[in-house]
């Protein structure tokens, strides 16, 4: 059902007036994890100031180590929702448990399904039974075909509002955290009718190449970019090495907008 053969036109997903997949750029920015009201609020103001509409933030964090910060859970979703309402932004947040999907609908505008859960089929089905937009991230070692099949699990349950997100894959290369598979973008755009985004933070794991990676993403046809922003990355409870501080985020957005304007923001 996600195949271009089934639907020739691009799927357009409406989130807070943004039409993802309409050919314009729509970026998703925010902290890796929700840590406090103040932290999210500072980032949200910067996001809003740039005219962006989608605020990300992890409340349930699927960390590689069980000893790392696991997120604030529902309290994190409450903080996100409060801040997003104050700034008139949409909330994008990861849900990791199928049993939480229903409850999360009160807080999130986009259900994020993370790389580690791309083949959590019960979670995919649960998200497929809602009508909320789903941001589906590519699995750590998933092929493009496996990625498309994961989207098929969601759409086959009735939810057609799916955004695919390339976030890098595991290879032997150690210079970046993952290897950004940039060619996945035009392949996904050709093979499916869904919008495709690129997460430059988790794919590169390197603040110094976020901008060129984002330029590459939009040049090759992505519908938008996701990146992480924190008021003080050095003390962040997750992904301290690659989140941008707010002045860096401002410069990043200015440079990206100059390279690839977001176009008609009515
Ligand atoms: C995230 O975006 O918060 C995240 C954990 O990314 P990924 O699932 O791609 O590792
Ligand atoms: Mn992160």
Automatic annotation (TrEMBL):
The keyword Cell inner membrane does not apply. Keywords: Transferase. Its EC number is 2.5.1.54. GO terms for biological process: aromatic amino acid family biosynthetic process; chorismate metabolic process. Signal peptide: none annotated. One of its GO terms (molecular function) is aldehyde-lyase activity. It comes from the Bacteria. The keyword RNA-binding does not apply. It is an enzyme of class 2 (transferase). This is 3-deoxy-7-phosphoheptulonate synthase. It comes from Lentibacillus salicampi. The chain holds residues 95 to 360 of 361 of the full protein.
């Amino acid at each position: 059902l996600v195949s271009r053969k089934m639907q020739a036109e691009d799927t357009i997903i409406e989130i807070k007036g943004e039409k993802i997949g309409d050919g314009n750029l729509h970026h998703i920015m925010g902290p890796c994890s929700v840590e406090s009201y103040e932290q999210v609020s500072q980032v949200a103001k910067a996001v809003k100031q740039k005219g962006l509409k989608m605020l990300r933030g992890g409340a349930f964090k699927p960390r590689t180590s069980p000893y790392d910060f696991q997120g604030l859970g529902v309290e994190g979703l409450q903080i996100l929702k409060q801040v997003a309402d104050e700034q008139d932004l949409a909330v994008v947040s990861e849900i990791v448990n199928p049993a939480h999907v229903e409850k999360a609908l009160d807080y999130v505008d986009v259900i994020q399904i993370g790389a580690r859960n791309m083949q959590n089929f019960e979670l995919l089905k649960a998200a497929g039974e809602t009508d909320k937009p789903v941001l589906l991230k590519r699995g750590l070692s998933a092929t493009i075909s496996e990625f498309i099949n994961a989207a098929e699990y969601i759409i086959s349950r009735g939810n057609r509002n799916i955004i695919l997100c390339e976030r890098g894959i595991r290879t032997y290369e150690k210079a970046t955290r993952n290897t950004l598979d940039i060619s996945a973008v035009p392949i996904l755009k050709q093979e499916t009718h869904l919008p495709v985004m690129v997460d430059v933070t988790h794919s590169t794991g390197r603040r110094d190449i976020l901008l060129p990676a984002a330029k590459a993403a939009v040049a090759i046809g992505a519908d938008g970019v996701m990146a992480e922003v924190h008021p003080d990355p050095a003390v962040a409870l997750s992904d301290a090495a690659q989140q941008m501080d707010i002045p860096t985020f401002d410069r990043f957005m200015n440079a990206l907008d100059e390279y690839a304007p977001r176009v008609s923001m009515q």
